[in-house]
Amino acid sequence: MRQPYKLKLLITGWVNYFSIAKMKTHMSKIDEKIRRNIRIVIWKQWKTTLKRYKSLRQLGASHSLAYQTANCRNRYQFVSVTYGLTTTITNMRLEKRGLVSLLKHYSKVHLVKSSIN
Asked: How far apart are CA 79 and CA 40, in angstroms?
């Protein structure tokens, strides 16, 4: 089973379970943390500076931005929220790869369940 599929099942099940509660702000915070952690995993998979540079360039970053981000020696948590990484690994790219947005799914399910009650 593919990993994004497992994550999608986990997210949708969790949101469906807690959808009757009013948790919009909590869902947005959790959604941000999940996306940040996925960016960290991607950053760790690009092990070398050269691989990071080439991958950022492939995703559309300029030479200077890719060079600056690839040579960043800060912690993974810091790099995951830098301009270089968040503009190349966007939320739309993550959605195309199969990541479900917690907030979007919650809004959809919460609206249906609150209208029933």
From this structure: 8
Contact between residue 88 and residue 52 where contact means Cβ atoms under 8 Å apart: no
| CA–CA gap between residue 63 and residue 68 (Å, rounded) | 8
Query: Average pLDDT of 62-87?
Result: 93
Torsion of CA 96, 80, 82, 88, to 10 degrees: -20
pLDDT tens digits for range 24-73: 888 889 999 999 999 999 999 999 999 999 999 999 999 999 999 999 99
Distance separating alpha carbons of residues 2 and 73, to the nearest angstrom: 31
**Which amino acid belongs to residue 98?**
G
Domain locations along the chain: 3-15+46-116
